[in-house]
Amino acid sequence: MNKFENYKFQEFCYQTINELGFTKPTPIQEKVIPLVYKNNDIIGISQTGTGKTHAFLLPIIDRINTDDDSVQAVITAPTRELATQIYNNAKLFIKYNKDIRVSLIIGGSDRQKAVNKLSTQPHIVIGTPGRIKDLSLDEQALKITTASIFVIDEADMTLEFGYLEDIDAVAGKMKDDLRMMVFSATIPQMLRPFLKKYMKTPVIIEIDDDKVTTDNVEHILLATKHQNRYEVLKKIMMIIDPYICIIFANKRDEVARITKKLREEGFKVGEIHGDLEPRERKQMMRRIHNNEYQYIVATDIAARGIDIDGVSHVINMELPKEADFYIHRSGRSGRGNYMGICYSMYDSADEDNLRILERKGISFKNMTVKNNQFVDLGERLKRTKRPKQQTELEKKVQSIIRRPKKVKPGYKKKRKREVEQVVRKQKRQMIQDDIRRQKKERARAAQREKRNGVED
C-alpha cells in the first residue's frame, strides 16, 4: 500500500501531514506527486474534493530552496476565496519551516500595501490572475521571471471568468523551461490552444472519470409546474433539519433576492456571490467557516473548490445550464463518510438536462411535498414509457398487409414501416374526404339560404 513515507519528503512536510491527519495519498496525489519530481508538465482532470490541492502543494513546498530569495512557483485560482483557501493550506507547512515565504496576491486589498510587502520576494506566490498580472507586469513589484513552476487551478472556471488573457500574459513572462500544472474538472475546447502553447507533451491524469458523483448523495427531483419556487423552497426548509444547507441559484441577483426574503422572514442566512464587496465577502466566508449559518444561498462559485465543512443538504432552485455544475453542486454534500441529499426543482424545460445527468449515471427520485412530508411519485417519465396502443386504423391496416410465407432478417422493421406508410396515406385521405364533405355541406347550406331568400 502506498504511503506518504514512500515519497521521502522533508521532515517539516511530514509534520504537517501528521497534523492534517493524512494516512495515505488520494488517487490524484498518488499519480501527480511523482510526476512533479520528474519535472513533467501535468494536466489533472478531477472533481472537487479529490485532494488535488495537496497533490501540487506538497511536492512544490518540499522542493523550495530557501537559500534562493527569488520567486520559485506561482499558483493561480479564479476567485479570491479559492486562492485564499490554497494559501491557508500552504501556511500550515510554514508553521514547521518558517524560512519558506508564501504571499497571497488577490484583489480587494490595498494595492500600495501589497507592493510594499513585495520588497522581499516570496518563494511561492498564490493569487488571482488579474492581481498577479497587475503587480508583476504593470507595477513590476513582483518578480515572476525567476519562477520555474506555474500552477493553474480550476482552469475551466478561469476560462469561464475571462481570465485566460491574464494567465497568458503571466506565463509569457516566465522561464522558457517553465513547468506547468493545470488542474480542472473539465478541459473545454477553448482552453486547448493555450495548453498547446505552453505545455510540452503533458502527462494527462484523469481521476474517477466514470464516477461522476459520490454514492453518499441522494438525488431528489421536485417538479414545480406552476408553483412559486420560493414557496417550494420554504416547504423543503420546514421539513429538513440540515447541519449546513447550500441553496443554489443560477444568477447573482436571484441569490440576493432569495437571501433578502429569507432574512425578512426571520431566517439567519449567509450568501456567496460576485456582487458582494471584498470586505463583505471576507466577513461572510469567516462567518461561514465559524458555522454561524445553517443555510447559505450561493451561485456556482461556492461549488468550485471552496471548502465548507459539514454540508448535509443542497437545494437547487433551478438546474444549472451545464451538467458538470450539477455534479459540483451536489458534491458539496456527502463528503467523507457522511451522507448528503440534493433537492432539485425542475420543470418540463429541464428534461434534456436531466437525461444528460441520468446518462452520466445519476439516479433521481421523483418526489413532491404534501402535508409537510416528501411523497414518492414513482418514475418521472412513466407516461412516456407506456407502450403505445395501436389505433383502430393501425389494426385494420396491419390486417390488410399480408405476412409473406418466408421472411428475411429485418422483416419486422420493414413491415412496421409499411404499416406506418399506409396509415399516413389513409389519414391524409380521411382529412381530404373530411374537407370535401365540409365544402359540400357549406355549399348545400348556401343553396338552402338562397332558396329561403327567394321564397321570402
Automatic annotation (TrEMBL):
Its EC number is 3.6.4.13. The keyword Iron-sulfur does not apply. One of its GO terms (cellular component) is ribosome. GO terms for molecular function: ATP binding; hydrolase activity; RNA helicase activity; RNA strand annealing activity. It is an enzyme of class 3 (hydrolase). Residues 33-205 form the Helicase ATP-binding domain. CDD domains: DEADc, SF2_C_DEAD. The keyword Metal-binding does not apply. Residues 2-30 form the DEAD-box RNA helicase Q domain. Residues 385-456 are annotated as: Disordered. Residues 443-456 have a biased composition (Basic and acidic residues). PANTHER family: DEAD-BOX ATP-DEPENDENT RNA HELICASE 47, MITOCHONDRIAL, DEAD-BOX ATP-DEPENDENT RNA HELICASE CSHB. This is ATP-dependent RNA helicase CshB. It comes from Thomasclavelia cocleata. The gene is cshB.
